[in-house]
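User: I'm putting together a teaching handout on how multi-component assemblies are represented. Below are the sequence lines for each component of a complex, exactly as they appear in our records. Could you produce the 3D structure of the whole assembly as structure tokens, so the students can see both representations side by side? Please keep the chain order the same as the input.
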Amino acid sequence: MMASRGTGAVLSRAARMRQKLQSALEASALEIEDVSYQHAGHAAVKDNANETHFNIKVVSPKFEGQNLVKRHRMVYNLLSDELNSGLHAISIVAKTPKEFGS
Amino acid sequence: MASTAASLRLPSPPLSAPAAAASFSSATTLRFPLRRRGAARPLAVAAFKKLSEASPVPIPPESAQPPLDEEALPPKPGVYGVYDAAGELQFVGISRNVRASVEGHRRKVPADLCASVKVSVADEETPDRAVLTNAWKSWMEEHIESTGKAPPGNVAGNNTWVGAPQRPPDLRLTPGRHVQLTVPLEQLIDRLVKENKVVAFIKGSRSAPQCGFSQRVVGILEAHGVDFVTVDVLDEEHNHGLRETLKTYSNWPTFPQLFVGGELVGGCDIISSMAEKGELSALFQK
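Assistant: Of course. Below is the structure of the complete assembly, with chains in the same order as your input.
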């Protein structure tokens, strides 16, 4: 992380998403997959857009006792800046450590 | 290959493909083209039972408990023929999910036309479309050879089996952009989701969703036989401003969005996962 800052590189959207989700959700597992290429012809994806579609799998103790709508909202809320700046859709799998283990 | 597939109008599951008359060969009045297209694939057909070899399974009424077991009517790709109460073959179809298709017929078609079904499933889990088409052709030919006529449900113009289902049109929030709204859009949304039990806000129309996720949700709801209405969030003429207002109303940033009884149930991921776990039926019975 320091290295990338040192070289002045801008963090990718995927990297920013990872940081936000990891720290806020204390995720014990977190997979972020860029599937934008699958939506290249998509009407809503404008010319130069990349990093528009992601699959996210996240395991967090904070999902305990929350229904799916609430879990997805937690993820969406954490990524609201991204959703407002070109992130078009994310597919979310949100589990608690207990559900993930079983 | 691609052009061949595109010109065949097959009742893909769950019976959502309305047959287009334009795709029929003029040489036949049948719903599917019987015309040979290049080299047939005899090997593929050999994998299926013949119509005369398959044994009929009674179709229980919708509410029957326990439902017909999956061994007899498997949720797998294959060819099937539905018989009426008198034992006459009424319709031959192919499907990626024979069980779902037959259940769809049972809901749509009068019960006396849907008494029993013969099924032959494909060997592969995801057979090529041509494999299924060939199986359909050979069942049709077998039946026509022995009786001299096609099953009534497969004759063009008969919409009993695969005609476009009676779908309500996409709902519109306003009569058009030129009309001054007297109530805020948010209130219109609120009224709409409370007055309609199941509402899907989707991108595109119900018959032609413009987004894969919207399409999947529509497909799942139709496969479950759910009575639902749709609203096209891309319709700028009638639903101008809906996308932004709905995002705030539901506190949900993406589409599609499904509401049941005025409450947000979720988007595509949640609906898909509930469908997989078998939780959807319970939701719609509430």
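A couple of points students might notice: Confidence is low (pLDDT under 50) at residues 1-8 of chain A. The beta strands of chain A are 29-34, 53-59, 89-95.
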